[in-house]
Amino acid sequence: MKLDSLGLNTEHFVIEHLLDSAVNRQLIADFVAPNNAGGLESYLKLQAELDEVGNGSRTYLIKDATTGKLACYFSLRTGLVAVRREDELFDTIPGVELANFAVNESYRSSGAKVAKIGGYVFRRFILPLVKSVSDLVGAQCLYIYALPEEKLIRYYSSLGFGRLPPDMESFVYSHVKPAYDQGCIFMYQEL
Amino acid sequence: MRIITDEYRKELMKNKVYQMIVNTPKPDFTQLDRECAEFEEWIAEVHNRERAAMASQGEPAV
Fold first, then answer.
1. Is any Cβ of chain A less than 8 angstroms from the Cβ of B40?
2. What is the pLDDT of residue A177?
3. Structure pTM?
4. Does the pLDDT value for residue A112 go beyond 60?
5. Cβ atoms of A61 and A70 closer than 8 Å
6. pLDDT, tens digit, 9 for 90 and up, residues B22-37
7. How far is CA B37 from each of CA A7, A15, A85, A131, rounded to the nearest angstrom?
8. What span, in angstroms and rounded, lies between the C-alpha atoms of A90 and A134?
9. What is the DSSP letter of B19?
10. Quick check: is B12 in a domain?
11. Is the residue at B61 inside a domain?
12. Predicted complex ipTM
């Protein structure tokens, strides 16, 4: 499935795979993550390409169609959610993880309403892309491990993500949450 | 590989966590869609200004 064939580009923004264009390396080098999200900047600059090569995740850039500036990026990978059974075992629900999602601070600072770009990218690019994936491989939900900050949790709620009751959350954490996501909050939405 | 048996599937359907996740209503994006439309209107104006500025400096838009 080619990215172009999905018809995701809008009049205002285009989606590209991490290294689709020669200028992307410079755009990535200039990317600035929001406060408290240095990990997201490091991932884009240091790890994303390695994950591409190893098929560990796919990273996409959203670029301004007029200026070519990098507005934000996100990464997707397949995964599963573990659900408790009555015995010692567990069942699983297939899904897609939104593993990284960050707006470029230097782009955000270019205007007041640009603060809404995260929701726009989620609705116009991420969701349609994930739904296309779920048409080809079984995936019942889209999920994230959000940093444990109230503001972020509210933000992801506004994008349609919800939380599980605490005991169910703990079960997910103890079975499938990667160690590097320690302390993060599992949130999901149905596809 | 094994396949899911009817018995297993029946047990799965009784699993309340599984049922909760797969039966969670899909999100209502009415508000988000409204915000996206407002954003598109705003960014269109911004782009018009940027294209005009770039043209006045002899720069082609991307």
1. yes
2. 67
3. 0.90
4. no
5. yes
6. 889 999 999 999 999 9
7. 18, 19, 43, 21
8. 23
9. H
10. yes
11. no
12. 0.85
Residue B1 placed within a domain: no
Total number of domains in chain B: 1
pLDDT-derived band at B55, boundaries 50, 70, 90: confident
Does the distance separating the beta carbons of A66 and B36 come in below 8 Å?
no
d(CA A114, CA A120): 10
Chain B contact for A109, CB < 8 A?
A: no
Chain B residues within an 8 Å CB radius of A64: 47, 62
Check CB contact of A87 with chain B, cutoff 8 Å: no
- Domains parsed from chain A with CATH numbers: 3-190 (3.40.630.30)
Q: Which residue of chain B has the CA closest to A190?
A: B26
Range of the domain at B48: 6-56
Residues in chain A within 8 Å Cβ distance of B34? none
Please give the full DSSP string across A103-134, using - where no structure is assigned: E-HHHHTT-GGGGGHHHHHIIIIIHHHHHHHH
* B1 CB within 8 Å of a chain A CB: no
Q: Which two tokens stand for residue A188?
A: 């999901």
Please tell me chain B's helix, strand, coil percentages from 3-state DSSP, rounded to the nearest 5.
70, 0, 30
Interface membership of A159 toward B (CB under 8 Å): yes
Residue B26 lies in a domain: yes
Quickly state the pLDDT bin for A180 (edges 50, 70, 90). low
Q: How many CB atoms lie within 10 A of CB A15?
A: 23
